[in-house]
UniProtKB/TrEMBL annotation:
GO MF: mannitol-1-phosphate 5-dehydrogenase activity
Protein name: Mannitol-1-phosphate 5-dehydrogenase
Organism of provenance: Robertmurraya beringensis
InterPro entries xrefs: 6-PGluconate_DH-like_C_sf, 6PGD_dom2, Mannitol_1_phos_5_DH, Mannitol_DH, Mannitol_DH_C, Mannitol_DH_CS, Mannitol_DH_N, NAD(P)-bd_dom_sf
Entry keyword set: Coiled coil, NAD, Oxidoreductase
Pfam family, one: Mannitol_dh_C
Residues the record lists as binding NAD(+): 3-14
Length: 386
């Protein structure tokens, strides 16, 4: 079996590539990072190390890579051959790889009727459906009709903390021991997959929302509030009493929404929260607030980890969730010189002011209690910083 995976970064090598290889796939990575691509082709293997006391090491073998920036025709050929395609490139990159995927699928459809599934393993709701939309923009009406039965785009939820790496071995990835990969089987075409460690479900919504609005809401809360308090490592920030209080409060608020919406038992959800806070405290993971807080405009989107649970909380309980509002306020103060979105956000705040930025992001009325609360908390954080 042959799998093509877009994105040989942290989650690509440290999670998806590893699981696919352990499930019997020969994995080929497509990436624009020439150094990583060359090293993968040179060694044909890389190591994954668990961030725990034992530092258990696994070698992922039988791999190859394509530099998709210069060899798009090789990627198209790999799409023709593939038994599975996965991505972990970041939500903003899906539209960029879509034309290449469309071209590959056209070539494939011309010579084969073998079904194929394409799974976006990104932190977003409906990632594969979004990729499908972007791929379909490059097809004719006739192609769209015939591709519907040939190619599946099952949504998925992926969970494993993989920080940025700074190892001497450029291919080595250190990952947390925990992992979860949930795939929506109703959108699958052809024979169901057997991916070791992955769970197939009919309805992904409870899984992706629980993950995004707990793991990623909590993580973002540590990154943004931790930054305001001057912390860098995530594991240090969460140990701070004030940071911890806001993070825990935000998770109680998003938790109230999730429990109500999906009928999880409160006890079960509290255990889920505690487990996640334990994962954030893992002292063997060196993760930075700049990575976890990256792309603040994406994270401040209305379907993402901060505003989505905050708005749902307001709609359900008719009051603004104070802790989520504090986290959003802290996100507005996030600065990172290497992060285009952080620079853009700071520029908009300077030029247009906080209320205009918030209403643009959410379409909420400037007098909405969420906007008012965020503005109040934003001013308080600003005073604290000055
Ligand atoms: N790291 C984690 O803890 C984690 C966990 C779960 C999900 N995710 C999700 O996985 C995705 C990737 O995150 P990551 O942490 O691995 O990021 P990363 O930056 O380590 O990896 C992204 C990779 O994509 C490559 N890339 C960029 N543009 C490309 C293009 N046009 N074509 C092919 N490759 C391209 C980059 O060179 C890089 O190697 C994101 O959506 C993220 O939210 C990350
Ligand atoms: O990848 P992002 O930018 O959406 O979010 C940053 C982190 O919260 C994220 O990568 C987590 O480490 C991951 O989602 C854990 O499963």
């Amino acid at each position: 079996m042959f799998a093509l995976h877009f994105g040989a970064g942290n989650i690509g090598r440290g999670f998806i590539g590893l699981l696919l290889q352990q499930s019997g796939y020969e994995v080929c990575f497509a990436d624009v990072n020439a150094e990583i691509v060359d090293l993968l082709n040179e060694r044909k293997e890389y190591k994954v190390e668990l961030a725990n006391k034992e530092q258990t090491e696994t070698t992922v073998t039988n791999i190859s890579a394509i530099n998709s920036a210069i060899n798009s025709e090789f990627v198209e050929e790999a799409i023709v051959q593939a038994d599975l395609i996965t991505t972990a490139v970041g939500p903003n990159i899906l539209a960029i790889i879509a034309p290449m995927i469309a071209k590959g699928l056209k070539k494939r459809a011309a010579i084969s009727t073998k079904p194929l599934n394409i799974i976006a393993c990104e932190n977003m709701i409906g990632g594969s459906a979004f990729l499908k939309e972007k791929v379909y923009e490059h097809l004719t009406g006739e192609e769209r009709n015939s591709f519907d039965s040939l190619y599946g785009f099952p949504n998925s939820a992926v969970d494993r903390i993989v920080p940025n790496q700074s190892n001497d071995d450029k291919l080595l990835v250190k990952v947390e021991p925990f992992f979860e990969w949930v795939i929506e089987q109703t959108a699958w075409v052809g024979e169901k997959p057997s991916i070791k460690g992955a769970t197939l479900v009919d309805d992904l919504a409870p899984f992706i929302e629980r993950k995004l609005f707990t793991v990623n809401t909590g993580h973002a809360a540590i990154a943004y509030v931790g930054s305001v308090y001057g912390f860098h490592p995530i594991a240090e920030a969460i140990q701070n009493e004030q940071v911890n209080q806001i993070v825990s409060g935000a998770l109680q608020e998003s938790g109230k929404v999730l429990v109500k919406k999906y009928g999880f038992s409160n006890e079960q959800h509290q255990a889920y929260i505690q487990k996640i806070i334990g994962r954030f405290k893992n002292e063997y993971i060196i993760d930075d607030v700049k990575r976890v807080g990256r792309s603040p405009l994406r994270k401040l989107g209305i379907h993402d980890r901060l505003f989505a649970p905050a708005i749902e909380y307001f709609n359900e309980f008719q009051e603004a969730p104070v802790n989520l509002c504090k986290v959003i306020a802290a996100a507005l103060l996030f600065t990172s010189n290497d992060d285009q979105e952080a620079l853009e956000l700071q520029k908009s705040l300077k030029n247009d002011g906080v209320v205009a930025v918030l209403t643009r992001l959410t379409n909420l009325d400037p007098n909405h209690s969420i906007i008012q609360t965020v503005v109040e908390e934003y001013k308080q954080f600003q005073n604290q910083l000055s």
